Amino acid sequence: MKKKNEDKDAFVFQDLKWLRYTNENKGIVQYKISLDPKAPFFKLNLSKNKAVPLDIPLAYTNPLGVTEEKKKDLMSLLAFIPEVYHEFYKNLRTKKKYD
Q: Could you tell me the superkingdom of the organism this chain comes from (predicted)?
């Protein structure tokens, strides 16, 4: 679908002569197809349309576990981890290496 300006006229990039963007109108680009200072600016809305929410199914029904080897490595690092986080690491679920 081709882009149209706010007057519903087709926006043709090759005809563009003068471009203006201001912070007051975020997402709106003003442009002219003439270098005449008295010529009017056309407005082109470049803000993205609101996306339609997608209904994406969950990839997993339960939290994923770490391998026994990974948990063993993490347990060996507990001396360097603040004690307040130890329970989290001790309660990590494990899984077989190639589940």
A: Eukaryota
